[in-house]
Amino acid sequence: MTFSAQYLWLIPALPLAAAALGAVLPRTGRGLAAGAAIAAMVASFLVSCVALCTALADPAAKLVHNFAWFDLGSGVLRLGWLLDPLTAFMCVMVTFVGALIFIFSLGYMKEDKGYKQFFCFMSLFAAAMLGLIVANSLLLLFVSWELVGLASYLLIGFWFHKPAAAAAAKKAFITTRIGDLGLLLGMLWLYNSTGSLLFFDGGAGVLETAALGSLAAQVTVGGLAVSTAIGLLIFCGAVGKSGQFPLHVWLPDAMEGPTPVSALIHAATMVAAGVFLIARVYPLMAADQVLAHVPVHALTVVAFIGAITALMGAGIAVAQNDIKRVLAFSTVSQLGYMMLALGVGSWVAAIFHLLTHAFFKALLFLGAGSVIHAAHHEQDIRALGGLSARMKVTFVTFAIGTCALVGMPLFFSGFWSKEAILHAAHGWDVSHLPFYAAVLGVVLTAFYNTRLMAVTFFGKPRSPGAEHAHENSPVMTLPLVVLAVCAVVLGFLNTPVWPWLDTMLLGKAEVHGHSLMEGAGLMGLSVVLVALGIGAGWALYWRTTRTSASAPDPLAVRAPRLMTFLAAKLKFDELYDATVGRLNSAAAAFADFLEVWVWGGLVNLLARLGEFTGLVNRETDERMLNGGFDNVSGKVRGTGLAYSRAQTGGVHGYLRFLVLGFVILVLLVVMGGAR
Amino acid sequence: MNAPGTDYYLERAPLVLRDAIVQWSPVPAQWLVHQLITIVAILAVFGTFFAFTTIAERKLLGRLQNRLGPNRSGLPWWKKGPKLWGLTQPFADAVKTLTKEDIVPAAADKLLHFLAPVLVVTFSLLTFAVLPFGRNLIPVDLDAALLYFFAAGAATELAIFMAGWASRNKYSLLAAMRALAQVISYELPLLLSVVPVVLIAGTLSTQDIVLHQGHWTFGFLPHWFVFTPWGAAGFVIFLVSALAESNRSPFDLPEAESELIAGHLTEYSGFKYALFFMSEYFGLTALSGLGVTLFLGGWQAPCPFLQFIPSYLWFMFKLVGMLVFFIWVRGTLLRLRIDQLTRLSWQFLVPLALINLGNAAFWALTAGWTGPLQLVRWGVSLAIIVVPFVLIGRRLSGTRAPRIYRYAAS
Amino acid sequence: MTLALFILALLILGSAAVAMALRNLIYSALLLIGSWAGIAAFYLWAGAEFVAFAQVLIYVGAISMVVLFAVLLTKQGHAPEPVEFTSLSRFITGLIAGGGVAGVLLGAILGMPLDVRTAQAAPSLTVKELGARLMGPHTASLLVIGLLLTVALLGAVLLASDKRPDQPEDAP
Amino acid sequence: MSPLQLCLILSSLLFCIGLVAVMSRGNAILVLLGVELMLNAANINFIAFWRYGPHPEAGTGIIFVLFSIAAAAAEAAVGFALVIAIYRHQQNIRLQEANRLKG
After folding, report:
1. Does residue B404 belong to any structural domain of this protein?
2. Which one, out of A104, A334, B162, B280, has a CA that is 20 to 30 A from the CA of A472?
3. Is there a contact between D23 and A655 if contact means CB atoms under 8 Å apart?
4. What is the mean pLDDT of chain A?
């Protein structure tokens, strides 16, 4: 079957059609809506597989199909589809994980009243994400990007009757909007400087050498190259969407949505969008690398932001007690790793980690969903416990996911992708700080995951919900098993011995592996680090199991201040309240102050002055003179009254003056011109 | 088979006749005579047509209601002769209305009261100017003919309003208000049901639209628009809206006898009443003619070998068919309430017409699909219109309480 | 040609002027409809067929209906209260201002050496070409107009509706 | 006098009729009708310049009139909705009494 980029629109169109169907169906059409959503995702997956085969046949090619969207009179806005290995891999990943999440939702959302809407929104979300992936135009990407934002708003606030959910939805929407503003500005700037928004357009696209060269050659404020400035603005969007420092605050709150939503947002779609965006515009981000005399390279910023996020997310995750929040902060941390990989120049490592992370994080979230569903919506890990015997399938798959996330050596996908990132960070010649942060992050990751496993699944059940938990139906466990298999197998796509994914993404023809021994030192170090983290976790949480839900955390006992600081998420919300929020209220207070005291005072002063003159007037009038002043003030009053009569509020009067003024103006101009 | 073309002698007969008469007149007045002949022909043909439509309606309604209808009137000077099945009844009616007293209420606005019936007939006659009656027969072949048709048609409701207001009668005024509400509600679906035809045919000219439908698949399946999914849906919407636009039952609210005496006609008598009556039938005929033109292939024959029958006769056959259908509807359906009327329009017809527009766009986009893809095209197009129809219909009827037949035996 | 223009102008201006001076609003509206129809005839005269029919369809078919509805809904139909020049001074100043504008405009028109195309044949533009222009270089404006109409429709419904949006459906 | 000038004079006179009506009539409906007249006068100008202008084949004048008619329709809808709102508020539609922003 021949497949060209022309038919790529099918991939997002299918879920979109399912969403449209879900929107028009009556409330009773639950089964049909869900079935259509799943069928559309599966069909999209099949199309994506065909696209992947086409792309892999010639990995270096960029198959594009561009078309005119609309004619502005002075120019034509063009959109397009793009097929290359990056697009194809992402499509396959999103549709596959998405389809599994949809199937899982069948069981998870079974009793929910908004079942139909849920599948409608989920399909819309998937459609927007797929549209973002196949876009060959920054404009189309931006439109899909905003649609993703909208759908995530709808989904996070799906249980909008809970105030927390509604607030979280708003927070997510507004926080990402801050980043999107940067993206929009970057996009406009790009269009202004190149006159096109297409990525690849037979030599005329913005990611091709001609445009990149001219962008890097121009210099703007502060000595930055234009490409750096645009890249950083676009990166703002990615920071918002991918929950990077300092805009990560919305991501943990997004846990208020249903768990499949969390899986979809944190694994496959929304957060991946930011990483994907940077990978997509990577040539633009890297365009300034050849310049030596610029104050900062765009990618350097990306690397540092990523490193900070990775460390910070792992640190906060240590002190969280909500099972979903732990996973949320681990996502923040892992996204930081991906950004770090992008920043240090190894975008293929980032995409590799993005793919493996999508699978094992979806697995973890769905596993958490399974636990929550079984334990009657108990999310606090302190109140769980002892589930390993009660939910065997969930436990085993969750353990596999955890191993992948921690980076257990050799047999889990997370190990290989994390190894690639560490390797790249180690080889970065600008600074070694990100590398150290990443290494520390590895220890912390191992530590908090051990804690999560130990507290959730071992010991005694500490609440009635956990006691009565039992394994869920196959419709929920089957996706877990499939994802678990993937979490293991996927790592072998890109081992140092056989770096197939790297070659494909980079568009090379043959796979050149090298021996494991080359990076053995680093690999050994990371194995030691993981062992260290697990050992610490074991010592603190496993050896002495928790006895009741209210018992203090062992770490909190040993380092109470650190723990509270971490538990409060490094006080970021408070910080924003104290800075941005307070700035806002301060501005409002200042405006109020101006209103009351300055302008009001001015008015009062004038009034006082008037009063005073009146007083003086009266005094002089009464004491010194007679009728003369009376007369004058009478005249003044009369003039005032005459003027005030013009302010009738009647439309006619105003209009008359307007017209007379117009006539007089024209006459003046004409006479002036005649002279 | 050699299909008869534009110069087929029966096709040319009316034109030959006209040109012969024009030749007789002095040269400077020839253009005037030319136009006058067209006008007179339309007046004569459709005047007679109107007369026989009334008798057909009365007789058909009679049959539908299990009675005979008018059957007494024969020829006046032939007392003992045959009754001619009452076919001369319209002429007797004409004499009656012409000789009746013309009553104008004392409080009425004399000028407008007089002007309203004149205008209403004028405007409804104006619409005939752009209907293609035959292969060579179209009074004015305008480029924007459809727009003209609706522009002229919109003015008749204005005349109805004038009649209602000028009568100074509260029933008449209420009827006038109803007429306005109705035209505002139904103008939209009517126009929207026509737009797909314009989209597919790519022209506003009625003659070109008819020519666009003049082909046959396998030599006998006509390419009339009504035989496509979007065309069928558009035709149904058009029919319903046309019923409402021409104030026919079940949408005859402006002149609902049982509620408003006779609506805006209450204060009219004699010949003015007859004019209103006439304009209603003219409007109906014109809208039927438009429906025939847009959806039923106009003057095109259904099969190629039937082309020996001249095109204007085909137009007339189809027109009569449409009118009989309208009479049938009148005899069958009950009158709607005003709120049901507006709800039907805004919640059902307008959304469906909009969806149908999208359907036609799909049809136009997939014009290149052939072979098995043609089947896909038909299936998708059918689905696009049937699924919303069922869904919207179900939702609308779902909000109503279950029907209770209180006085019917269960 | 010019004679026809004169007759049309007389019709348009006469009916407009009388409409604006009458006391009975229904007469005003009907006369104004006549004036609009005259303007449509002027478009026909100028060769803009499509615009002429659009003018009739929209002004005579739609806007007039809205006007008549407004007149009847606000009970102005039989003029129970004086719909007259309540203030003579307002009328006079209005006339003076209007006259001033007319003077300025007429002076400008008559004083301008207008470069008139010598070819007097009316330019013809088929509906199809017009549509292509509309969907080609003027797409953006078309979209904006569509948006405007939608917003106006919603706004009109909101303004004219009896209920406040924040009140429940069946509040007394 | 050229036909173009005649058309322009027609339109400016129509404009002034509308203007006088707007300025001197107290009835809100009449005022709105005056505004409609002014819009129509502008349309006449567009058509006249299209007819006698240098590039009639571009059709800009016609397209502008179409947009203008659409805008006029929108204006009429909103305007008369406002009239009805005013009537509901003060039981008449005399514009000179509608002189408060708050009521």
Report:
1. no
2. A334
3. yes
4. 79
Contact flag C100-A659 (C-beta cutoff 8 Å)? yes
The chain A residue lying nearest D100, using CA atoms, is A649
CA A342 – CA A357 distance, rounded (Å): 15
Residue C8 is encoded by which pair of tokens?
């049309």
User: What value does the mean pLDDT take over residues A635-656?
Assistant: 74
Most confident of A258-262, A593-597, B201-205: B201-205
Tell whether C136 is within 8 A of chain A (Cβ).
Answer: yes
Range of the domain at B118: 105-366+377-393
The ipTM, to two decimals, is 0.63
* Contact (CB<8Å) B180/C69: yes
DSSP state of D27: B
Q: Is the CB of A73 less than 8 angstroms away from the CB of C138?
A: yes
CB within 8 Å of chain D, chain C residues 6-65? 6, 9, 12-13, 16-17, 19-20, 25, 28-29, 32, 35-36, 39, 42-43, 46-48, 50-51, 54-55, 58-59, 62-63
* Number of alpha helices (DSSP H) and beta strands (DSSP E) in chain A: 30, 4
Q: Can you spell out the DSSP letters for B215-275? A: -EETTTEE--GGGSHHHHHHHHHHHHHHHHHTT-TTS-GGG-HHHHTTGGGTT--HHHHHH
Instruction: Domain D3-97: state its class.
Output: mainly alpha
For residue B405, what are its two tokens? 């037949």
Two structure tokens written together for A610: 């008037």
Cα-only R_g, chain B: 23
pLDDT at A508: 67
d(C-alpha B46, C-alpha C3), whole Å: 35
Query: What pLDDT is stored for residue B353 in this prediction?
Result: 92
Confirm if A122 and A130 have CB atoms less than 8 A apart. no
D97 touches chain C (CB under 8 A): no
CB atoms C127 and B143 under 8 Å: yes
Among A652, A656, A659, the residue with its CB nearest the CB of D95 is A652
Whether B409 is in a domain gets the answer: no
Segments making up each domain of chain D, as ranges? 3-97
Mean pLDDT throughout A553-573? 66
Instruction: Label residue B193 by pLDDT band (50, 70, 90).
Output: very high
Which one-letter amino acid corresponds to residue B128? Answer: F
Q: What is the pLDDT of residue C172?
A: 38
Task: Please choose, from the candidates A437, A273, A406, the residue with its C-alpha nearest in 3D space to the C-alpha of residue A340.
Answer: A437
Tell whether the model's pLDDT for residue A291 goes beyond 60.
yes
Q: How many CA atoms lie within 13 A of B262 on its CB side?
A: 10
Task: Give the C-alpha separation, A382 to A371, whole Å.
Answer: 13
For C141-168, write each residue's pLDDT tens digit.
Answer: 888 999 999 999 888 888 877 665 555 5
Alpha helices in chain D (DSSP H): 3-24, 28-52, 60-90
pTM reported for the whole predicted model: 0.63
State the residue for tokens 């460390």: A311
pLDDT more than 90, % of chain A: 0
- D23 vs A648, A649, A652: nearest CB: A652
CA distance A90 to A92: 5
Which chain B residues are within 8 Å of A32, Cβ to Cβ? none
| Number of domains forming the structure of chain B | 1
Between CA B151 and CA B147 the distance in angstroms is 6
D19, closest residue in chain A (CA to CA)? A659
Task: Give SS3 for A137.
Answer: strand
Which of the other chains make 3 or more beta carbon contacts under 8 angstroms with chain D?
Answer: A, C
- Candidate from C57, C65, C126 with C-beta closest to B150: C57
Chain A residues whose C-beta sits inside 8 Å of any chain B C-beta: 24-26
Q: What part of B 176-195 touches C (C-beta under 8 Å)? A: 177, 180, 183-184, 187
User: Class of C1-74 per CATH?
Assistant: mainly alpha
Domain boundaries, chain C: 1-74
* Bigger pLDDT: A151 vs A294: A151
